[in-house]
Amino acid sequence: MANPAEPNGSRPIRIVIAGGGTAGWMTAATFARFLEVGFEIDLIESEEIGTVGVGEATIPQIRLFNDALGLDEDAFLRATQGTYKLGIEFVDWGAPGQRYMHAFGDIGRDVGLLPFHHYWLRARKLGLAGDLAAYSLNNQAALAERMQRGPARTARVLPDMPYA
Asked: Which of 85, 101, 137, 141 is catalytic?
């Protein structure tokens, strides 16, 4: 039996993606990029469901996905009027008016064999340490509305800034 996806005039295999949004369009883009010839991709969206803002759950691994699709990051950001994201901020976290930012990347620097948080917990107990977020490069950069792509240019001791 011949493969229906053969480019010998046979009908292509039809893939239907029910539902658009971020997941649907990312799935369609992946299929379009990686499937061989002989496939037809249809994405079906509801006109009654409005657009949901994207990016609320985007994490640094999105860069790997975009790279796999062959997207140029600078051109992609220009075309989509996108911005960089250093973390996810939760408003009214725990109580009204309270905020929490889950910044991407490491917090503090490990010392010897012990992770940073061990030193921070001890210093906090002694009244010597500030809020944990104060030791997050991404958190501080987001608050200052600053960021840097790529390796640190000012000091080798600074970690890379993961972003989405």
From this structure: 85
Q: Is 8 among the domain residues?
A: no
CA distances from 103 to 58, 106, 136, 138, 140 (A): 12, 8, 7, 6, 9
Asked, for residue 3, whether it belongs to a domain, the answer is no
Only one residue has tokens 């921070």, namely 120
Burial-class residue 44 by CB neighbours within 10 Å (0-12, 13-18, 19+).
exposed
- State whether 75 and 21 are in the same domain: yes
Enclosing domain of residue 27: 13-45+55-80
To the query of whether residue 85 is one of the catalytic residues in this protein, the response is yes
Per-residue confidence at 41, pLDDT binned at 50, 70, 90? very high
The Cβ of residue 67 has, within 10 Å, a number of other Cβ atoms equal to 11
Q: Which residues pair with 89 in a beta bridge?
A: 101
Within-domain flag for 150? no
The pLDDT, as a whole number, for residue 10 is 81
Q: Is residue 164 included in any domain, yes or no?
A: no
Same domain, 72 and 131: no
Query: For the segment 120-154, what is each residue's pLDDT rounded down to a tens digit?
Result: 999 999 999 999 999 999 999 999 999 888 766 66
Global pTM value: 0.75
